[in-house]
C-alpha cells in the first residue's frame, strides 16, 4: 500500500501513522463523508495466518458493536487486494493524541489527570462488560489519550471474548494477552470474565500512580509466578482509599476483586488525588507526632506543643487534605495549646475559623464551637494575650487549596 491509494473504493491513504506486530495504521480520507479516519490493515505477512486474520476480523465485529465515548468507534470493515490475496482492513475514528504508554515514557502524568483517564477506562469496560464482552488486553498501549479534552479511549478488541468462554492457549502454547497485565486466572486456564479486565486495570492504575508496574520480571514464567503468588507493595497515595482499591483490583482470586467496572468507577471518583513522596510520612505517622505534641502540652509545656503542631499542619493539609478530620483535629489541638500558652485571642480566632470550614464534619464544628465559647469567656476575663498571626490558610499552606477528584 502507498500514499494516495484508495481502499475499498472509498478511503484514500494520506500518511502512515504507525506500525505494530500485526497491522499498519494509516491516516485516510473517507471520500464519501469527506472526513479523516484511521484505517488499519493487516500486514501482508499475516494475510495467510488464519489466527491473525480471525483476530483482526473479530476486532472489527466486536468493537463495531460497541457505542461509548471512551471506546474508539469502528466505522467500517472490508477486504482489499494486497498482492498475495485478500487482506482485511478496519476503518476507525481518528483519535488525535498519544497512547498512554507513550505518555508514561515521558514521566508520570499529573495524578488527578491520571485518575481521570482510569475512570474513562472504567466507563469503557462497563460498556463492554454489559454487552457480554471481555477485552482481555487492557494495557497502556491500548488506551489512547485524545489531545482534545484529554479523554481516554480504549481500542484493540482483537482478542476479546464473550464472558462465558474460558481462557485458552494459542496454537503456539502461549497465553492470550500481554503478560505484565494478565490476571492469575488467565495463566491457570480458569474462567475469564470481566474481573480479569479489572485486574489489568489495577496493574495499569498502579503504573499511572507510581511509574512502575507492580511486578517486574524478565520472562513469562517469572511473570506467571508473580501474578499467581506475589503481593506487590502498596501504592502510597495521600488517600488510603487508593491503596485499598489497587490492592482489591490485584487480588489473586477474582471473587476478591470489585464486583464490576461500575463499582471501580464509583470508588475512583471518591479518591482524593495526590501521591506521597518517598520521604513523606504516612498519615498514621503524622498523627503519632501530633499525639506527642499533646503529651508535651499535658506535661505543662504548651509552647512545645504549639511549635510541633504549627510545623506539622502543612504536611497534614498536603498528605491528608485540608478538610480531613485529622487535619482539623490538629488545628483544634493547636488552638487549645495557644490559649494555654498565653494567646487566648489567637485561640479564639483559630477556633472561629474552624467553626466555618465548609467540609468539616458536624462533630468537628460542634467541638470547635464549644471550645470557642470557653476561650471567648477567657478573653473577656483576661484579655487576648500575646498576638499570634496563625490563620487557618497560613497554617495549612498550599494544602488549603486541595480538593477531591472531579469530573470524568
Structural write-up:
The chain has helices spanning 50-64, 100-105, 111-130, 184-188, 194-210, 220-229, 240-249, 261-270, 283-298, 302-319, 325-340, 344-354, 362-382, 392-396, and strands at 6-7, 11-19, 23-30, 35-42, 74-81, 86-93, 97-99, 133-134, 143-146, 152-154, 161-162. It has 14 helices and eleven strands. Mean pLDDT is 88; it is low at 162-173 and 399-405. Helix 3 (111-130) runs antiparallel to helix 8 (261-270), helix 5 crosses helix 7 and helix 9 packs parallel to helix 11 (325-340). It is an alpha+beta fold and 408 residues long. It folds into three domains: 6-93, Phosphorylase Kinase, domain 1 (2-Layer Sandwich); 97-270, Transferase(Phosphotransferase), domain 1 (Orthogonal Bundle), CATH 1.10.510.10; 283-401, Tetratricopeptide repeat domain (Serine Threonine Protein Phosphatase 5, Tetratricopeptide repeat, Alpha Horseshoe), CATH 1.25.40. The strands form three sheets. The protein has a six-stranded antiparallel sheet, with helices on one face. A three-stranded antiparallel sheet has the order 7-9-10.
Amino acid at each position: 500500500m502507498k500514499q494516495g491509494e484508495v481502499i475499498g473504493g472509498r478511503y484514500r491513504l494520506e500518511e502512515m501513522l504507525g506500525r505494530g506486530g500485526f497491522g499498519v495504521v494509516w491516516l485516510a480520507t473517507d471520500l464519501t463523508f469527506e472526513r479523516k479516519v484511521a484505517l488499519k490493515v493487516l500486514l501482508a505477512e499475516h494475510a495467510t495466518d488464519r489466527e491473525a486474520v480471525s483476530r483482526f476480523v473479530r476486532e472489527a465485529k466486536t468493537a463495531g458493536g460497541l457505542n461509548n465515548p471512551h471506546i474508539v468507534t469502528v466505522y467500517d470493515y472490508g477486504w482489499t487486494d494486497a498482492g498475495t490475496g485478500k487482506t482485511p482492513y478496519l476503518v476507525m475514528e481518528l483519535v488525535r493524541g498519544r497512547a498512554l504508554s507513550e505518555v508514561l515514557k515521558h514521566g508520570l502524568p499529573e495524578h488527578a489527570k491520571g485518575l481521570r483517564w482510569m475512570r474513562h477506562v472504567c466507563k469503557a469496560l462497563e460498556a463492554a462488560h454489559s454487552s457480554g464482552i471481555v477485552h482481555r488486553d487492557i494495557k497502556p498501549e491500548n488506551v489512547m489519550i485524545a489531545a482534545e479534552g484529554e479523554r481516554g479511549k480504549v481500542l484493540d478488541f482483537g482478542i476479546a471474548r464473550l464472558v462465558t468462554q474460558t481462557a485458552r492457549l494459542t496454537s503456539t502454547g502461549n497465553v492470550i494477552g500481554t503478560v505484565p497485565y494478565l490476571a492469575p486466572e488467565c495463566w491457570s486456564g480458569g474462567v475469564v470474565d470481566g474481573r480479569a479486565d479489572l485486574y489489568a486495570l489495577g496493574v495499569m492504575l498502579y503504573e499511572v500512580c507510581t511509574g512502575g508496574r507492580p511486578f517486574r520480571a524478565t520472562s513469562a514464567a517469572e511473570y506467571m509466578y508473580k501474578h499467581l503468588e506475589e503481593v506487590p507493595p502498596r501504592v502510597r497515595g495521600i488517600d488510603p482509599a487508593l491503596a485499598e482499591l489497587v490492592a482489591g483490583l490485584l487480588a489473586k482470586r477474582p471473587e476478591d476483586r470489585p464486583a464490576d467496572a461500575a463499582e471501580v468507577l464509583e470508588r475512583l471518583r471518591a479518591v482524593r488525588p495526590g501521591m506521597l513522596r518517598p520521604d513523606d510520612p504516612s498519615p498514621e505517622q503524622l498523627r503519632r507526632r501530633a499525639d506527642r505534641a499533646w503529651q508535651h502540652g499535658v506535661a505543662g509545656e504548651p509552647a512545645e506543643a504549639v511549635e510541633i503542631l504549627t510545623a506539622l499542619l502543612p504536611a497534614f493539609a498536603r498528605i491528608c487534605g485540608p478538610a480531613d478530620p485529622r487535619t482539623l483535629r490538629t488545628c483544634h489541638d493547636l488552638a487549645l495549646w495557644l490559649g494555654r500558652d498565653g494567646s487566648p485571642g489567637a485561640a479564639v480566632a483559630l477556633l472561629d475559623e474552624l467553626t466555618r470550614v465548609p467540609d468539616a464534619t458536624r462533630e468537628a464544628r460542634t467541638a470547635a464551637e464549644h471550645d470557642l465559647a470557653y476561650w471567648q469567656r477567657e478573653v473577656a476575663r483576661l484579655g487576648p494575650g500575646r498576638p499570634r498571626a496563625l490563620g487557618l490558610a497560613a497554617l495549612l499552606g498550599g494544602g488549603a487549596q486541595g480538593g477531591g477528584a472531579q469530573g470524568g
